[in-house]
Amino acid sequence: MKDRLHMADKKKIKSEASSSNSINNGGAESVVDDVGRRRSSCGYCKSGSNTSITHGLWAHSLTVYDYQALLDRGWRRSGCFLYKPEMEKTCCPSYTIRLKASDFVPSKEQVRVSKRMQRFLDGSLNVKKPDEQNETSRDSNGLSKKDTVSSVQGDVMVDNGAQMNNLEQVTYYLSKQIDSVVLACTDSGEFPSDVQFSKSSVKSVAPAKRKLQAETAEVLLYSSNISFQIAAALRRANKSIHQKDDHCVEPTPKVIAEVLSSHLDNLVSAIGLSVKACNGHINFYSTQVQSQADVIVGKPAVSKDSLTSSGSKGSSSNNSRKLQAKGQSLEIRLKMSSFDPEEYALYRRYQIKVHNDTPNHVTESSYRRFLVDSPLVFVPTSGDGAVPPCGFGSFHQQYLINGRLVAVGVMDILPKCLSSKYLFWDPDLAFLSLGKYSALQEINWVSENQKHCPSLQYYYLGYYIHSCSKMRYKAAYRPSELLCPLRYQWVPFDIARPLLDRKRYVVLSDYATLQNEAASSPHIIEDQTEQEEESFPEESNDIPIDADEEMSELAFEDSDDESGPETTSLSPAEMGKDVGNIVIGLKGMHLKYKDIREAFGAKERNYLETQLHKYVMAVGSDLSERIIYSLG
């Protein structure tokens, strides 16, 4: 586009500029390059073709107020690159999700995460260092086994045959063993390799329910419903299960539970448990006496206040909080986004160990571009309640245990919200569920700082993709709401969920009409019931915020389809919208388009106005007249 505009009469532009009313350039301003529509491969559904369709902007600078407005129209940033899915066209529609911090109600699992951290700090959580583990061997199925029972990542370990009297240790170990079996089944071809599966979640069975669910004299201690989630994922992908005789079978929860249980038997027998498939559930039994079993599954109660206050005791300033226990100390520091060698070393280790990135892929330049660079213009505190004590802008929140950096949360603090972008953590501390713990701390931060800045009320978790099971953990932070992709109204998640069960793209603000349609459709009720069977896996939200949302301008190179068959012509109503008030940045001048329209030839003018109309549709009329549209 810029090459075409260079053909314009530059002398005429200069003449028009001298006689026009130049826009006031004082103070902060937002300046963007419009990248336009682009196609790329999708990291969520792994379609294998360029089915992900987004609109992109490259931001030279961006005020926090304009970025807040862009977030509320479905935009998101990665470094200095802004992107918004074209919801009707893209393969995996991404809905902006947020939570009002003051309304947050923690789940039982989120309460357990907070209590687990407290026990770790005071020394009552039994763990061993990774270098104290024995060497790993492989069984005939290629599954991991150790001479001493440990978690898959070696974070929680007890001696072989010893009494495991900690609930989190047992459920964490069993969950990881199921995950390893699912991976082995995928590697062997039994499960399709092109389908993403949720992480497993193993729950303890309450004493009152054991007799109702037990089939034998053995004591039922733990159960997992992962088979229902795997079956649903396979059905959505129209996939089957391949047995050893190359026979394909329907992926029902019962069949999947039987497959997984057969592989798990040897892995759990070492800790005195047996495993059986029961109506699609994977059940773990023990022959220990009932009194011992009751000790294992006992859970202390905890209130919302005790959960959200964790980590804020003894704070020395708004930007640093410290939780001191008799064993260890946790300090949480908030700092402006900048390059830190210690943070980069942790990020590199995290990406390689947790996400299996190759070392040459995790470069300092890619780290800076993704998590350090930011177009947001910092706004210092004003002291009048309009800006929090830390100011508005891009920040890194560091978590240090005994002075050692163990996690970093990357976030934007904006006039209405804390927008969480990414989290990376020490792989040796996976058992602490730092992804969940940091989210709880960020929600608590919003609640605390609302006292200083009343407009700061929300916690934005990025994009929610209902068709991608591993992204559904975000809805576990309740009560959340999703942004309607057409009218940009916020709709409670509990209303949106049954609509998204029916189809991927939904105009959520039409929920009243859609619910009436659903009430008259029997199959919708069946789908909703099946969705309840899936539920949200408790451990799935260990995935960092926006783990797979890293967008790069590189994905947009050489993929312009504006003149291709995919380009949808604008309607007369859309073309009728005036673009004259859009501020054009050209050759160092900021001018309204209507004042320099005649400076372009007919061909260049028609081309530019087509692009400007698309830009207005993407960012909205108000923002299009406020943000400077740069042409170089």
From TrEMBL:
<feature type="region of interest" description="Disordered">
    <location>
        <begin position="123"/>
        <end position="150"/>
    </location>
</feature>
<feature type="compositionally biased region" description="Low complexity">
    <location>
        <begin position="16"/>
        <end position="30"/>
    </location>
</feature>
<feature type="compositionally biased region" description="Basic and acidic residues">
    <location>
        <begin position="128"/>
        <end position="148"/>
    </location>
</feature>
<feature type="domain" description="N-end aminoacyl transferase N-terminal">
    <location>
        <begin position="40"/>
        <end position="110"/>
    </location>
</feature>
<dbReference type="InterPro" id="IPR030700">
    <property type="entry name" value="N-end_Aminoacyl_Trfase"/>
</dbReference>
<feature type="compositionally biased region" description="Acidic residues">
    <location>
        <begin position="527"/>
        <end position="564"/>
    </location>
</feature>
<dbReference type="Pfam" id="PF04377">
    <property type="entry name" value="ATE_C"/>
</dbReference>
<dbReference type="InterPro" id="IPR016181">
    <property type="entry name" value="Acyl_CoA_acyltransferase"/>
</dbReference>
<keyword id="KW-0833">Ubl conjugation pathway</keyword>
<feature type="compositionally biased region" description="Basic and acidic residues">
    <location>
        <begin position="1"/>
        <end position="10"/>
    </location>
</feature>
<dbReference type="GO" id="GO:0004057">
    <property type="term" value="F:arginyl-tRNA--protein transferase activity"/>
</dbReference>
<comment type="function">
    <text>Involved in the post-translational conjugation of arginine to the N-terminal aspartate or glutamate of a protein. This arginylation is required for degradation of the protein via the ubiquitin pathway.</text>
</comment>
<dbReference type="GO" id="GO:0005737">
    <property type="term" value="C:cytoplasm"/>
</dbReference>
<feature type="region of interest" description="Disordered">
    <location>
        <begin position="519"/>
        <end position="574"/>
    </location>
</feature>
<feature type="domain" description="N-end rule aminoacyl transferase C-terminal">
    <location>
        <begin position="342"/>
        <end position="484"/>
    </location>
</feature>
<dbReference type="InterPro" id="IPR007471">
    <property type="entry name" value="N-end_Aminoacyl_Trfase_N"/>
</dbReference>
<comment type="similarity">
    <text>Belongs to the R-transferase family.</text>
</comment>
<keyword id="KW-0012">Acyltransferase</keyword>
<keyword id="KW-0808">Transferase</keyword>
<protein>
    <recommendedName>
        <fullName>Arginyl-tRNA--protein transferase</fullName>
        <ecNumber>2.3.2.8</ecNumber>
    </recommendedName>
</protein>
<dbReference type="InterPro" id="IPR007472">
    <property type="entry name" value="N-end_Aminoacyl_Trfase_C"/>
</dbReference>
<feature type="region of interest" description="Disordered">
    <location>
        <begin position="303"/>
        <end position="326"/>
    </location>
</feature>
<feature type="region of interest" description="Disordered">
    <location>
        <begin position="1"/>
        <end position="30"/>
    </location>
</feature>
<dbReference type="InterPro" id="IPR017137">
    <property type="entry name" value="Arg-tRNA-P_Trfase_1_euk"/>
</dbReference>
<dbReference type="Pfam" id="PF04376">
    <property type="entry name" value="ATE_N"/>
</dbReference>
<feature type="compositionally biased region" description="Low complexity">
    <location>
        <begin position="303"/>
        <end position="320"/>
    </location>
</feature>
